[in-house]
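Hey forum,

I'm writing up a methods section and want to include a predicted complex as supplementary material. The small molecule is flavin-adenine dinucleotide. I've pasted the protein sequence and the SMILES. Can someone with a working setup run it? I'll credit the forum in the acknowledgements.
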Amino acid sequence: MDVTVVGSGPNGLVAAYVCALAGLRVRVVESDEELGGGARSHSDLETGFVHDKCSSVHPTAAASPIFNAMRLEQDIKYVYPRASYAHVLDEGRAALAYRSLRDTTAEMSGDARRWRQTFDAGSGFGDSVVRASFLTPPLGPVGIPDKLRLALGAAARAAQPFRTIEADALWTGLRAHAPGAPRSIASALVAVSLGTLAHQKGWPFISGGSAQLTDALVKRLTELSVTFALGHTITDFRELSSRAVIYCGSPRGYVQAAGAQMPAKSRKRFERFRYGPSVVKIDATLDGAIPWTDKRLREAGTVHLGGTGPQIVASEQGVAQGQDSEEPFVLVTQASNFDPWRAPLGKGVFYAYAHVSSSAKPVEVSDRIAGLLESHAPGFRSLVRRWRITEPRQLAHQNLNYVDGDICTGEISLRQLVGRPVVAFNPWRGPVSGTYLGSAGTFPGPGTHGMAGWHAARTCLSDLFDRQMTLDLIEELQ
Ligand SMILES: Cc1cc2nc3c(=O)[nH]c(=O)nc-3n(C[C@H](O)[C@H](O)[C@H](O)COP(=O)(O)OP(=O)(O)OC[C@H]3O[C@@H](n4cnc5c(N)ncnc54)[C@H](O)[C@@H]3O)c2cc1C
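Reply by user p_vandermeer:
Happy to help. Structure tokens for the complex are below, copy them as they are.
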């Protein structure tokens, strides 16, 4: 065997594909009994209803340079809601960020110009964001103009916030995608990236559920004779006989598997890597669409709740300090409003999660989520058929990469954006010879995009097998 890929999330499957396409013999080892990591869907609440287990909304997949080079859209279909995301304010009043920048700013009174300046995907800024977010590692000379553009955009907006309650809530909701640190520069970088993608491409669902992405990747791997070993957890690299290991588990798992082979200095640096807060996730089956007071919300794929910008900041800071708010930041997705394959006609699936501290009581959080929904969508409770709570410890148990329930596989801070998992010009080359790192715990970080797997595979091919892979070549080989 030439390469063992550990972990079968989107990053692991991409890494395996790139190595197999280069002509190597590749094996994927996965601790779960099922492939896909965060990109899985099940019909386990009720027959005919499809729930995304983790990843559901896919701006990073649609923008991913490797997925696009692989022409994945031949096998999966993205479904784009008219509004990428929305934010619910008091009494059901909402603000919406449509795919169209023009439609979005048309509904903004005082902040239209600022919004355009911040998220102007069309002016070449969108391409800069994609390159800086996915392609060029934060350190090093490559892509400096793109990185600067993104950093300056984020810094400018962080220093001079939006003026209206609506735009500020939309912006703060975006920042909350970096959990627990709503005022940090890291959260502003995340917000500018995600907010720009919302207008450049949109925030789509994958028709039929995110497992379709895994199925499409696995099909390609099978055609290239990649083999799979399920139900096996790698805890020691010495048990692997292949020439290279691409480790798509967490940085903590890497340290464990490296054991005594890891130089003490590197171990210390890896042990400084921190994990962030967790979530309580709810899945439900519904007797219809969510009856939002503001009817425009039916057009939004993702809906954020949690009050005004300052209220979100307070609750997110509370989570970081171990105190859960009565009104947490909640992210709701409504895939069945756009994708007929998610639920029987006239029915719906509900997916939501709230950021929580390690001391949160999941049942209380679940009640708060239901209460918030009822107040902004009266009649919501009566539509619920089945309701399931997934607690942080269950998330951690279901996927080793969600250390302590952290769905980002590592805190999103400036230090951990620049150095993920550690500060290095090439963060994908592991400190143990012949090993590479390719999970969400490595740059570019969380999200379904496969880019950490791409970078790790490319580095491995060049280091050990003298093969140079480029995105253009991948595209040509399709
Ligand atoms: C509730 C939730 C909601 C999310 N929502 C979104 C979303 O809407 N959009 C989005 O883009 N992202 C979302 N994410 C994040 C996204 O799922 C992840 O960032 C993404 O899946 C990371 O891909 P990965 O390949 O690095 O790891 P994962 O997909 O997490 O897969 C890692 C795999 O490696 C296996 N593994 C780990 N260690 C070992 C080992 N030692 N031996 C063998 N196998 C091992 C694990 O079992 C797992 O299958 C969400 C995550 C969660 C949990």
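Some notes you might quote in the supplement: The first helix runs from residue 10 to 21. The mean pLDDT is 96.
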